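Purpose: get a first structural picture of the assembly so the mutagenesis plan has something to point at.
Setup: two entries, given in the order below. No constraints added.
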Amino acid sequence: MSDYFTQIADAVSFGADRPGKADLFAGRHLFVGLNCFEPGQRQRVHTHAGADKFYLIVSGRAHMTVGDETRVAGPGTLVWAPADVPHGVAEALERTVMLVGIAPPPL
Amino acid sequence: MSDYFTQIADAVSFGADRPGKADLFAGRHLFVGLNCFEPGQRQRVHTHAGADKFYLIVSGRAHMTVGDETRVAGPGTLVWAPADVPHGVAEALERTVMLVGIAPPPL
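Result (structure tokens, whole complex):
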């Protein structure tokens, strides 16, 4: 095990009842983790006050919402949710793995 | 063009003389961009004082250094460089595209 290196594939976990989550690294200034969705699962629209966030779709496909935009995001799509802008996952269309980063980290 | 959605593939750029860089999103709390290496290119070991950073290898393969660890990183490897810990790319072994995030953003 390393403090500095990890493989996304090793941290993927899905849940039948709710999306799977994994914490990868948490520093004082930045949190990085995974959100893993089964087809049909969602993440309600929410806002991080004073924190910037991104999602990177690693695999799968989902309808993503930021502000008043909703788009289909697939592998290699980077989704930017700046501080105070509402965002969420309207619906995963396939099994979908997303890397997420939030700065500063959630309390 | 969207303020919130982009494709990594659309921002990839390589340079013969030095690694290619692309800014994807820059907020007050978080910067996200790309670093693109031709085989043999390097990024010298450096430190971000007071800023956490990660690299995600999107494609390719490189020797990465953080602190006193050097490892081969390939697609799906997440590399964590906490604030004040020296890090760099010892050598790209193939054409390599990395997503990088830094919080707070560089000045």
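Strands of chain B lie at 5-7, 20-26, 31-37, 43-46, 52-59, 62-66, 69-73, 77-81, 87-92, 96-103.
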